From TrEMBL, chain B:
It comes from Celeribacter indicus. Residues 10-102 form the Sulphur oxidation protein SoxZ domain. This is Sulfur oxidation Z protein. It holds the Pfam family SoxZ.
Amino acid sequence: ASLLPFRASAAAEDAIAAFTGGAEAGSGGITLTAPQLARSGAAVPVSVEAPGAVAIALFATGNPAPGVATFTFGPLAGRRRVATRIRLSGSQEVVAVAKMENGSFTRISLPVTVAGRGAARQAR
Amino acid sequence: MADGADPRVKLPASAAPGEVITIRTLISHPMESGQRKDGEGNVIPRSIINRFTCAFNGAPVIDIAMEPAIAAAPWFSFDMRVPEAGEFRFAWHEDDGSVYEVTKTIALA
């Protein structure tokens, strides 16, 4: 039962399209790290890296509001990498989209299973 | 302004020219999402840190726009190439307009 396919909501796809300006995002050149199974959704550690990215946006496709954060790198950024902790209202797919220096986009998604209930309430 | 927001930054005291360092930041803040209700069913108003910036000698390193899905006590780890000795300015912007600032210096090793 835990292997049901995760589906990105229409709201999440709209939020992603707002970031890409409607451009199709490719794949590759971006890595997203998150636990497969999070005991709580209140603070799930995620890390994203995309060499050559000027900005990376994170989306929690199953949250009531899918936007999580947008990281814009300045010229002094070293590796184009950020780690943070996010709220997930339940098991869902986390999506990262990078805007590259040439204006193209690349995306990656990762399913995260959230165990426990109290977390969902906090995350909402 | 949230009570007791306590911004903290960890970075090395010195670096070789061109070295990439890791910067870690944390601010104590509840990041009230605006989606929770109190015991009487009233929505608790949203109150979050919505933006974080780091600049070095006036040049941007990273600019982060945050939504309520960033966990309470927003924590970030990111990297920066150190071109020279100088001063960092870190700023956390709250929904109510409050800004919490921290400055740090780094020397060349």
